[in-house]
Amino acid sequence: MSFQALPGFRDFYPEEMAIRRHIEGAWHAAAKAAGFEEVDGPPLESLDLLRAKSGDAIVEELYAFTDKGDREVALRAELTPTVGRMIAARAQALRKPVKWYATPQLFRYQRQQRGRLREHIQWNVDIFGATEVGADAEVLSVALDALRRLGLTENDVKVRVSHRGVMAERVRTRLGEDAIESTLRAIDKGELSPAQAAELLVAFDVDAIPELDALHAACEDLGIDKYLEFDPRIVRGLAYYTGLVWEIFDRKEKLRAVAGGGRYDTLIERLSGPSMPALGFGMGDVVLGELLKALGKLPPGPPRIDVLVVPIGDEMLAPARQVVRRLRLAGERAEAPYAPMKVGKAFQAAESFGARRVVLVGPDEWREGKVKVKDLASREESVREVEKL
Amino acid sequence: MSFQALPGFRDFYPEEMAIRRHIEGAWHAAAKAAGFEEVDGPPLESLDLLRAKSGDAIVEELYAFTDKGDREVALRAELTPTVGRMIAARAQALRKPVKWYATPQLFRYQRQQRGRLREHIQWNVDIFGATEVGADAEVLSVALDALRRLGLTENDVKVRVSHRGVMAERVRTRLGEDAIESTLRAIDKGELSPAQAAELLVAFDVDAIPELDALHAACEDLGIDKYLEFDPRIVRGLAYYTGLVWEIFDRKEKLRAVAGGGRYDTLIERLSGPSMPALGFGMGDVVLGELLKALGKLPPGPPRIDVLVVPIGDEMLAPARQVVRRLRLAGERAEAPYAPMKVGKAFQAAESFGARRVVLVGPDEWREGKVKVKDLASREESVREVEKL
Fold first, then answer.
1. How many helices (H) and strands (E) does chain B have?
2. Which of B338, B348, B353, B356 to mutate against chain A (most A CBs within 10 Å)?
3. Contact (CB<8Å) A328/B304
4. For residue A57, with 0-12 CB atoms within 10 Å meaning exposed, 13-18 middle and 19 or more buried, which class applies?
5. Which residues make Cβ contacts (< 8 Å) with residue B99, sequence separation at least 6?
6. Are B318 and A218 inside 8 Å of each other by CB?
7. Beta carbons of B356 and B347 less than 8 angstroms apart
8. Phi/psi of residue B15, each to 5°?
9. Which residues does chain A have within 8 Å of residue B217's beta carbon, measured at their own beta carbons?
């Protein structure tokens, strides 16, 4: 019997882990550049919390179960309930606006399709306690800054923007209060009939939405206005969004959204906190990874070591360890094989590790406190004193 | 109704997250310095896999449940089953020795005590495919290197070492085959009667164990021999260890073990892989965090930003955003408030963020393409051209 990962879950071998860390590195850098502080919460939460935020639509897709203490619990499918709970608990003490980010792994039990896993890593960036449109522009700029750090510019991606609150009001006046949620969900999924779409969307006028103008102006200040496209079909699937909403797509629209966000000014209150404006976005690693791969923007994996230290014969194992110790203390990533290795094989290994140098520890040089150093790029070889390595 | 984290689970607010990242940073640095590659696997695994490795003792403490596809699954309580499964699946293709590390979050449903949570972050470092004692010394040196990077030296911690295989053999000859597992567990938990302990431990002679000598010599090469203490009470609780075993403790032995590891040469085979020697260790964030705190080795949190940009009046909001954009592109962590802020309050905020400079964007200077810059350490103020910021 052989064991496998559960369907929809990924094993991160070193190559996949390097890609994940490359993406996460850009996320951390962009968030920190804009003064966001990192947080995290439990992967497991009470089902009540998740239900309070997202309603039953998400609950159906949760990994939910009853724990040994008879609590109804579930793996997190979003971070926002957790972050909302954390904000609500310290709402008075925290300096506003609160600027937080996180990179949690999230879980959904859904039918599997290409690119649809049951887990993914998602970057969450949120601001609590800011009503100003400058905050909306800032979270968007942070999302785009991370993409820029990964090599994706306005030639590769665009932002489709709209205003869920205005659209909801429009649906209310045309179709009545009861039609709002189902109609917005149909818009989000692209399921409107042509007649409905024409009625609701065609005459939906960007100029009638002052927040969109203000967002555009703030984005100009931040140098990201060229990414923006007004698109009334963007309403975000989840019912808790209240204001400006946006999604980032690849320019060719071959993939699902790379990221999505907006305002959800009533959420904290719904999670038993005070009334507090809130906004933010999520960006997953799966679609983004596919896009980077399709555009040839994934860098080669980082080298595993800088220096391979090779003992020539059994007696040189201990000296090789001493050399390794010295190199590591000097800040180099270095290793030696645990058993003697043929020199030819050692050079092959060094190349495959991406090492820059090979240090050969042989008995003759060692007696004089020296080792042979070979630079793998220049192919130059020299005999060096161990003390001066 | 207000929501809370489940009992035994931690919320990581920015201060706690900074400590976690400080610890994890040392783990990453030490592993990479020694040529270990990072991996990760799913937090959720099939119950069969966890049972195959650890037996029923751990299964009782698992967060186990049946998923919507009728699979018996559980949250990981250790990473080793996952890593073993990944190794077994690619045993032929991977270059030996395989040197892997990971920093997963792990989960156990256990009765709560002080410092005993239901989740923790654990650094795992493993080598597969090396029989040599140099590999045992290397993983230990990596563990100690991380502690050194966190400010803990041989004055603060020690390594208690023994050999589970030799001890098991000793129990077999004195008490019989059937007594091995229960006796080793009793030794691990310190539950032996004085008579039993005297019989088994007192005459347990370090000189009779050649691997311990060899380990000591290799540790001398790596400069970590001063940490070592032979201690026959160290056998590791889990049945799959086969050879050298060790645990790291604070010198005063006030806390539980900071880390523990050893050889488990039969594990990969048990997970349906080929026969392959293996060894490694785990180091958790909880006891280590307590020790760092007790010794005053936790650094202050990192500054949130480098520069606070302050708009003087509503009209300067847009210019402030443009200044922020310029600073961020130059690699500085910078932010501006979304609404105008009184100058006194702005300086307070800048101090609390750990910022080094405040940039005041006022209408008079801005008209001339200039801003006021104040250095918070030297208290020097200057008027600078925006172009040259």
1. 14, 17
2. B338
3. no
4. exposed
5. A335, B34, B35, B36, B37, B126, B127
6. yes
7. no
8. -65, -45
9. 318
Note whether ipTM > 0.85 here. Answer: yes
8 A C-beta contact, residue B240 and residue B52: no
Identify all chain A residues contacting B6, using CB atoms and an 8 Å cutoff: 42, 44-46, 67, 71, 73
**Measured between beta carbons, which residues in chain A are less than 8 angstroms from residue B319?**
221
Report pLDDT digits (tens) over B12-55.
999 999 999 999 999 999 999 999 999 999 999 999 998 887 66
Strand partners, A361: A311
Q: Which residues of B touch A348 (CB under 8 A)?
A: none
What is chain A's mean pLDDT, rounded? Answer: 92
pLDDT digits (tens, 9 = 90+) for B167-211: 898 889 888 999 998 898 888 888 888 888 777 777 677 677 899
Is A60 in contact with A50 (CB distance < 8 Å)? Answer: no
How distant is the Cα of A185 from the closest Cα of chain B, in angstroms?
25
At A229 the three-state DSSP class reads: strand
* Identity of the residue in B6, B141, B337 whose CB atom sits nearest the CB atom of A44: B6
pLDDT in tens, B262-297: 999 998 888 888 899 999 999 999 999 999 999 999
Q: Which of A24, A231, A12, A244 is nearest to A130 (CA)?
A: A244
Residue B232 contacts residue B192 (beta carbons within 8 Å): no
The reported pLDDT for the residue numbered A206 is 65
Per the DSSP assignment, residues forming a β-bridge with A123 are A283
- How far off is chain B from A14, nearest CA to CA, in Å? 5
Provide the β-strand partners of residue A261.
A246, A281
**Token output for A84:** 């909302």
Task: Provide the whole-model pTM.
Answer: 0.96
CB B8 within 8 A of CB B117: yes
Count the Cβ atoms, other than its own, within 10 Å of residue B79.
27
* Residue A80: other Cβ atoms inside 10 A: 22
Q: For each of the domains in chain B, give its residue range(s) and CATH number, in order of start.
A: 14-294 (3.30.930.10), 307-388 (3.40.50.800)
Q: At how many degrees (to 10) do helices A210-221 and A133-149 cross?
A: 50
